[in-house]
Structure formats: structure tokens, C-alpha cells
Amino acid sequence: xxxxxHPFQFLPVADSTSAILKAFVQKDQFIPGAVAAREQTAxxxxxxxxxxxxxxxxxxxxxxxxxDAALLPLIGPGIAxxxxxxxxxxxxxxxxxxxxxxxxxxxxxxxxxxxELVRSPQGSxxxxxxxxxxxxxxxxxxxxxAFLPTALHEWADLTGQDLVLLxxxxxxxxxQSASVHASMEPRLRAFLVGHSATLGREVTVDLPGGERVxxxxxxxxxxxxxxxxxxxxxxxxxxxxxxxxxVPG
Length: 249
Known about the structure:
This protein is 21% helix and 29% strand. With 249 residues, it is an alpha+beta fold. It folds into two domains: 8-194, BirA Bifunctional Protein, domain 2, CATH 3.30.930; 202-243, SH3 type barrels. The termini are far apart.
């Protein structure tokens, strides 16, 4: 088990754990560090999406120093894979990764990841990884294209589990991604491909500039961008909101 031996703050209620943590980082504190909460009143997802954060979930943000900017493309996929592996090994839950930032169980949404890059007062790069995980409660997700939610307690016996201890444990799992190095890329890629909920499926990706790409998710580029085969070309998608229909049943 990867222990978290860095600054850690657990709050009953927070507006946004990532916002609180970024304020610490801008004061050159909590690098590395973690902030968690039982409830968020202003949780955020990708873009303008709201992350429903009622009591019963685990809301955690972890600040990780980035020793080498060249490793940035590995950190997000590394966290996604490490958390999926933790869910599998710790709770015997078959979590799969929906590109770029969600964990699904049986094609239902268990949680999500939001990556943000900030600079400390010293100018060093810091990744703030915000995680929302449905533990004891599965909130209603807005939007017709959203996957149905699920919660960890539906798949695992959580008797005696404490959210504070789980948050510290998960922070340790996320923290190990800060030590990623280039030699780990093949193993990371193999795990991501083997646990992808997106590859081989018809997808629609809304790009940051407003363009929409529709096609079949065929693979990952060297920087882990999604490769989408449209009717006439292969499109490399570095960022965007990716949608695909859940598998029937």
C-alpha cells in the first residue's frame, strides 16, 4: 500500500477541494499535499460541467510537483490506471477507463478525474488532480448523454470503511503517479488499452473550439491522445468531452 505522508486536510464540507488546494499551492504550501471532503458545494467537472458532490462520495484533490514537463502526458493516464488498479485489487471491482477521465463499472459511472496545471510562486509546475468517487451514494447525473451513475457500495462490502482513511489511501495511490518515468510508458499503455471502456466504440467528441468529431475510437497516440477514425480520416483528439452510448443491458 502506498502511504500518504504529506500535508492532508479533510473537511466536512468544501466548495471545491481543488480550489482550496490551488490556493495553498499559490502560497507555496501543500506541494505535495491533499485536500478531501465529504461534500462539495461547487464541485467541477471538465469544461463547464458541474460535478454533483452530495454526502456519500469521496472528493479528493492532490497536488503533485512535476519534475519534468516532458512527463506531463503520462501523469493523467497514470492516475487513471492507478485508480482503476486500486479499485480492482482493493475492492475486486472491475473498473474500466472511459477516455479521458472517467471510471466506469458495468458501463455505469463510478467517478471522474479533472487534471489542472498550475505554477507555484517559485515558478515550478504543479499538477492538481481532482477526483470524485461515488462511494455510498450515486448522484443523479444531468444531461441526456450521461452514463447512469453507480456507487462503490453496490459492488463491494464497505462495512467498517471510513471516508477519511479511504481518502488518505487514495491520495497515496495518486501520489505514486508523480514518480512516473518514461520507461513505464509501455506498461501504462498496455494497461490502459486493456481496461479501456472507449476503444472500439462509436464516439462523439466535442472539442474545446466547438468542433465535433464522430467516428470509431481506434487507439491512442504516443501522447495518449485518442485516435478517432471518421468516414474519411483518422483524427487525433488531445482534449474534449467524449461521449459514447452505454452497452445495452
